[in-house]
Design brief:
heterodimer, A: mainly beta, nine-stranded mixed sheet, five-stranded antiparallel sheet, globular, B: 13 helices, 10 strands
């Protein structure tokens, strides 16, 4: 019962903050030089990223839905986001955050053997490990919104498109219309993830995202057993 | 609450630890990519670590206030590295060393017996075969935020919807028996399905069908004609595993009651138990003493030349005695009258119809 009260308080808190955010923090998305394509921008180290301002991301922790059993050292990652507007309504997003460890989660491997390894099955390894991850969420209905969709994966009236990356699993596009409705779409998305010197740099290429579309972000830390709604997330920003 | 509840009773006095059940299950359900460490059925030597290592001591289930009490996720080392053999070199090419594991094994599904060092100097142990307990209050179901786990209304079998599961593993932490496994190939958690596709076709669970010791009894707990109803509810000689975990398991055990240590004629097992009672209480709760007394009473009655219905049943002479499957009864109770899509039929030999229709 305590968990449920905690959840309720957490959600009330969220909704309050969300309504305050309606006037909304804004993320600048300056146009990249015409020569920069999605192929260029998907590279986190491309020079075009230096031309766009960096916004520190204000992160929040998920409400205590799953307590106990969540590892949390109280240290939240320092994260920042940059946006680049490319031609034809394409928006490039680069998320950057500090994470001392690269966590790739459980893996499936075929043991290399002295003999003909092809006859062997793949094995599950590191079944207790979880992967680092990141996500950019936009409403299915793009453009200006008087009322943002629910931060918890959108809602029935305002479903969400999710551009999702998980270390070791790659990039996938998901859709959702509220908590626990996340489903795979099978559509591929462009993105790239690089880790160096204690930082993840992850880019997503979002198509058909005009100005004034709301956008929000989430980050998972595998070493803290993050998965599911156990994550860091931002409130809604409006793309300028 | 489901309309019916399939249950299994295992008579631990008859288990010889041959692992035939384990292999029957493995070949039927978990012989695929990503499933090497997955034993929906395993047999472990107790007292010992069990599988995964120390599952019985790390938590899970519910506390006294009915809150979930998740355990840590067992690391891969607590399942052991599943090793392969160099079949190609040895068997197909006729060269190489004798067939040896590709890695140096450090733990496995019944490691206690493999190393033979558990309980050294104490001449007692028993085999504990384990499957998913298909609990009445499944902690796994409660822990799943995706509602990917459900308890089938028609027969109480607990299953994981592989389409809904996203591999978060809250269920593994919640299960006090650690009978859910993660598959990194499918990215989902998987578990014993009580062979429901077999039961729906009138064939008993693979582990029970193959058991050479004939120690497994299967039927609906709520069917007065079933052997599990007789052993659990009428004669009260079978107990669930770790009843204090708060999940109300539906697999029951006839506890082992080895003869007294020094074999004095007429002495009670309880006067001089070979298996320390504390060990048995640890696994089956305080009620185990009463059950042993009851079983001893049945034994005395048989020794005095009287008929013991319990012992006759526990002999399990044939499949008709051990199993009572009622697919038609269960089908009638299914939501939407069988509208739920059925799983593809298992491979292997044609299924034999066992038991009788209600």
């Amino acid at each position: 019962m305590n968990n449920r009260i905690g959840l309720l308080l957490g959600l009330i808190g969220l909704l309050t903050v969300q309504s305050e955010a309606l006037a909304g923090p804004v993320l600048a998305a300056p146009a990249a030089p015409a020569s920069v394509t999605a192929k260029d921008a998907v590279e986190p180290a491309h020079a075009a990223w230096a031309t766009t301002p960096e916004t520190p991301l204000r992160l929040h922790r998920s409400p205590p839905l799953y307590a106990p059993g969540v590892r949390d050292d109280g240290v939240w990652p320092v994260a920042a986001v940059r946006l680049l507007r490319l031609a034809d309504g394409v928006l490039a997003v680069r998320l950057q955050w500090a994470d001392a460890t690269q966590d790739r989660g459980a893996t499936a491997a075929r043991y290399p053997d002295r003999g003909d390894a092809k006859i062997y099955k793949r094995h599950t390894e590191q079944a207790s490990r979880f992967a680092d991850g990141a996500c950019a969420m936009v409403p299915r209905r793009r453009g200006a919104h008087d009322r943002n969709p629910s931060l918890v994966m959108g809602d029935a009236q305002n479903p969400a498109d999710l551009f999702y990356w998980r270390a070791g699993l790659g990039f996938q596009r998901l859709r959702a219309a509220g908590r626990s409705t996340v489903a795979r779409t099978g559509q591929p998305i462009e993105g790239r993830a690089r880790w160096s010197e204690g930082r993840w740099n992850v880019t997503f290429i979002l198509r058909e995202v005009p100005a004034r579309t709301p956008i929000s972000f989430a980050i998972w830390d595998g070493s803290k057993e993050h998965r599911d709604g156990i994550k860091y997330f931002s409130l809604w920003y409006e793309i300028k | 609450m489901s309309k019916h509840q399939y249950a299994m009773v295992m008579d631990l006095n008859k288990c010889i630890g041959c692992q035939t059940c384990t292999m029957a299950c493995k070949k039927q359900w978990t012989d695929d990519d990503g499933m090497a460490s997955m034993y929906w059925n395993n047999v472990e030597t107790q007292p010992g670590d069990g599988y995964p290592r120390r599952w019985h001591a790390i938590g899970g289930g519910f506390d006294a206030q009915r809150h979930l009490r998740p355990s840590p996720l067992p690391p891969s080392e607590d399942y052991g590295e599943a090793f392969e053999y160099d079949y190609a070199q040895r068997l197909f090419l006729g060269k190489g060393k004798p067939v040896m594991p590709h890695a140096d094994p450090r733990f496995g599904p019944n490691w206690d017996e493999d190393v033979g060092a558990v309980n050294r100097g104490n001449p007692y142990y028993f085999y504990l075969p384990r499957i998913c307990n298909h609990c009445t209050h499944p902690a796994c179901l409660e822990a799943c935020p995706r509602k990917a786990i459900y308890k089938r209304e028609e027969d109480g079998i607990v299953v994981i919807d592989q389409e809904r599961c996203r591999g978060y593993r809250h269920c593994i932490k919640a299960c006090p028996y650690k009978k859910i496994y993660f598959n990194a190939v499918t990215g989902t958690s998987q578990k014993c399905i009580f062979c429901y596709p077999r039961l729906e076709r009138g064939a008993v669970n693979a582990c029970a069908a193959q058991c050479p010791g004939r120690l497994r009894f299967v039927g609906l707990l709520d069917d007065p004609e079933s052997p599990v109803h007789a052993l659990v509810l009428r004669h009260k000689v079978a107990l669930p595993l770790s009843p204090d975990m708060g999940t109300h398991p539906n697999v029951y055990y006839v506890p082992p009651f080895s003869p007294p240590k020094d074999g004095r004629p007429g002495a009670s097992v309880l006067d001089d138990p070979r298996l320390p009672l504390e060990q048995l209480k640890y696994f089956f709760g305080a009620g185990v003493v009463e059950v042993i007394e009851r079983l001893e009473g049945e034994l005395k009655r048989a020794q005095a030349g009287q008929k013991s219905e319990v012992l006759q049943l526990l002999i399990g002479r044939n499949a008709g005695v051990r199993f009572r499957l009622v697919p038609a009864t269960v089908r009638v109770a299914a939501p939407g009258d069988g509208a739920r899509p059925t799983a593809p039929g298992p491979g292997g030999p044609p299924l034999t119809i066992l038991g009788q229709e209600a």
